[in-house]
Write a structure and sequence with these properties.
two-stranded antiparallel sheet, binds nicotinamide-adenine-dinucleotide, 46% helix, binds zinc ion, globular, single chain, alpha/beta
Length: 304
């Protein structure tokens, strides 16, 4: 039981780590809710990174057919992405985010001061999603967030950057909550990114944002190969990702392995990969299909 907000509230703690985003942890939270007699009017506050937001959101969204929860995200990734949009999920059978729901939180409370204690690596990794928001929706925002290294933004700039990212994501989700169309634009960089993230899991080589950064380069390259994106925009994107301090290559796998894994993605239909690509900085297109040869060339590019 924790005091400090004028009320005494029960608290449960989950161990950090993506490998803890699993059913056993959901059971721990459900048992906690049962033990402390949470009812349909109770509120669960999820304080932590995206892993806690996903786990707590899923536990609350399923307990007694759903009780209210609020997200209090404490990482860049969770402040600009995971806490917004109402997707909750846990990993299951070695598959990322395989079991989950669309359940909107009752609210999201963001305080960028929480970010001060993040490691540089986690902090910079979150900027991959910020850059993504610029790339799919807003060229001025892209220029603003890539004008300096992430560490160089002052407190006010950071608040503004986080707020604008939330707005971009919220607008997209509001237009298409269940991802039947526009919301797919948020998947830019994630088809290849998720595969690289999964492949790197054992060696722990990549954080989510780092995998997405490499995925964005591969998928921007595919956009060029399909004649959607100009070579000069591609060069800008690649240079920007490198300058931000994010990785741009993944020399530890093969085109075939990555392709095989991309084919099992849950966003696919009928065995086709549905790509979200760019036709300019600030303009995304979704449900694009591509020839095997182009896909292979785009993957090959980031393996060098
Ligand atoms: N639901 C969605 O729409 C959505 C979107 C993006 C990501 N996600 C999920 O979010 C997760 C990734 O989120 P993440 O990058 O925040 O990772 P995370 O929650 O695993 O946090 C990363 C690490 O930072 C620590 N941490 C958290 N806040 C801190 C702080 N203020 N200071 C110091 N350390 C802190 C955590 O304990 C952890 O060790 C993944 O599970 C991903 O699938 C979900
Ligand atoms: Zn992401």
């Amino acid at each position: 039981l924790e005091k400090g907000i004028g009320h005494t509230v029960p608290v449960t703690v989950v161990r950090a780590g993506e490998d803890q985003k699993k059913l056993e942890m959901v059971e721990q939270i459900w048992n906690f809710l049962i033990n402390f007699k949470f009812d349909r009017k109770s509120l669960l506050l999820n304080l932590g990174g995206g892993m806690v937001n996903d786990l707590g959101g899923f536990a609350a969204g399923t307990y007694k057919r759903g009780i209210d929860f609020m997200q209090i995200p404490t990482t860049v990734m969770s402040q600009v992405d995971a806490s917004i949009g109402g997707k909750t999920a846990i990993n299951y059978a070695n598959l990322k985010n395989m079991i989950g729901t669309f359940t909107q939180p009752a609210g999201v409370i963001i305080d960028t001061r929480a970010l001060k204690t993040m490691t540089e690596r986690e902090y910079v990794s979150g900027f991959a999603e910020i850059i993504k928001h610029g790339l799919i929706k807003n060229p001025e925002y892209f220029n603003q967030v890539t004008a300096k290294h992430p560490n160089e933004f002052n407190d006010e700039e950071l608040i503004q950057i986080v707020a604008e990212s939330c707005l971009i994501k919220a607008q997209i989700v509001q237009a298409d909550e269940q991802e039947s169309g526009l919301r797919k634009t948020l998947n830019f960089g994630h088809t290849i990114g998720h595969v690289l993230e999964a492949l790197s899991q054992e060696s722990d080589r990549l954080r989510h944002g780092e995998a997405v950064a490499i995925g964005m380069i591969a998928e921007a390259k595919l956009s060029v190969l399909l004649g959607l994106l100009s070579e000069s925009d591609f060069n800008t994107i690649e240079a920007t990702i490198i300058k931000t301090g994010l990785p741009s290559r993944y020399p530890y796998s093969s085109v075939q392995t990555i392709l095989d894994n991309a084919h099992t993605d849950k966003k696919n239909t009928d065995g086709h990969i549905n790509w979200t690509l760019l036709k300019g900085i600030g303009q995304a297109v979704y449900d694009v299909q591509a020839d095997d040869s182009h896909i292979r060339a785009a993957i090959q590019y980031v393996l060098q």
